[in-house]
Structures are given as C-alpha cells and as structure tokens.
Amino acid sequence: MSDPWQSTERRLLKLLADRTAFGLNRAEERELQQLLGVVPDFDTESMERAAATVQLASTPIEPLPPAVHARIRACGRRQVRSSGGG
Amino acid sequence: MPLCLLQRVAAADADAVDECLAKYGGLVWSLARRLCPRHEDAEDAVQEIFVEIWRNAGKFDPEIASEVTYITMIARRRLIDRYRRRQRDLDIAVLEESAAASPAEHERWTEVSEEAARARELMQQLRPVERQVLELSVNHGLSQTQIAEATNLPLGSVKTHARRGLIKLRKLLGMESAGGVTGGGL
Predict the structure, then answer these.
(1) Which domain covers residue A47, as residue numbers?
(2) CATH code 1.10.1740.10 for B1-88
(3) Which one of A21, B21, B64, B161 counts the least CB within 10 Å of its CB?
(4) Is this model's pTM higher than 0.90 or not?
(5) What is the CATH number of domain B90-186?
(6) Chain B CB within 8 Å of residue A73 CB
(7) Model ipTM?
C-alpha cells in the first residue's frame, strides 16, 4: 500500500514545479492550496530557488545603465530612510 | 558576525542601497532585459524589482538562501508576472540562439560570480533536454506549447522535463531538508 505522505509530497512537488515553470490553472492552484493545508510547513519557495539557479547559470551580466542606476538609487535611499528599513 | 547587504538595508542603512545596486544592479538588469522586449519596460521592471527587494529585505534569511539567489527569485517572480500579463509573443529563433550559449561565451562575461559558476555546475547535472526546456521556460517565459513548437518535443514531455529538471535542482540544492521531505522522483 502506498504511503499517503509520499504521494502528497510527490503531488506537491509536481504542482510546485508546474507553477514555477508554466503557471497553474485555477483547479490546479486550488489543489495546491488544499495540499499545502495538509502540509503547511512545506517549503513552497524551494522550487523558486531552483528556478533562480537556472537563471543564474545562464544569464550574461550587462551593467545597469547609469541613468537607471541613478533613478533607482535615489528611490531606494528615499524608501529606506522613510520606512526605517524592511 | 557582520550583517549582509540586505540585512543592512532592512536596518535602514542607506549606504547599503548603493552597495546593493552596485553588486546586483547588473544581474537584475540582465534578467529584465531577457523578459522585457522594450528597453523602457526593462527600466520600469528593474525599478519595481528593487523597490520590492528593499521592501522585503527584512525577510531575507541567509540560512535558507544566498543573497544572490533571493534577489534572483524576487526578480524572476516580478518579471514573470509582468510577462504573463503581457503575453507577448517572443521570437523563438532568438530564444533558441540565446538558450544555446556555449561555455566559451559564458567565459566572456565580465562579472561571473561564484554563485553563477556553482549554478552552472548544478545545471550540468541535468539532462540536456531538461536544461533546454528549463532555460526556455524559466529564462524566457515560454509556454509549454511554445517550447513544444521550438523543440519538436511532445507537449506532455515538455512538462515532464521541466518538472524533472526543477525537482532535481531542488534536491541538488539541498532543499529537501528545508521542506522536511525528500526530493523524490516523478
């Protein structure tokens, strides 16, 4: 007889992988949320970290254009000062 | 132990904003350029991403992920949201060329971090077809159908290769312990 924990885990992994790679339809998203209700401490971001690895492996780095850098810098300093951080 | 950049941002250290931009600005810009066909879109996307990074800096946990992985994750999430909203067709020929970047091309990159090198080592442990499908889906936001057309793979196989690749990478990254379960095959 199959272990229900194992089958829940396998289904969760498949759904999380599908969500990360292609997105889920409404029924799949509902199923994912139901399964996460059963396993609330499952690390849902783990698949996104795997996807980040794919991007890091194959993204040639170009410098940020100076004008964009200046704009974001000003915005970031304002935001950090006004919010007091995080 | 000294605070890392994101922890300093969370502690309202404005200088950390400058350092963070200097260190990760190129990475975020490069990720945005891949998924934003227009230069102006990429500029807006990068600003949105950094605003979200500053806002979420306090949630960063160095025990779970490296700073560069965390930033890439936030950037990807935001870019995919924008991309899927736009649903713009991409030039598949260009994508194929980009996805097939050779190791020699990688060596020409001016800023190759240790993290990127480690990521490439991990990617080498996937099957070539898993790498190809993941690069097209994760890096370029292509749908299952678009990938099937670009690669001549059956539609169902595209999803299976993407799943296997991601689950394998997750396991390689040691994420199974964070989730409290084993990586598992399909």
Answers:
(1) 4-83
(2) yes
(3) B64
(4) no
(5) 1.10.10.10
(6) yes
(7) 0.85
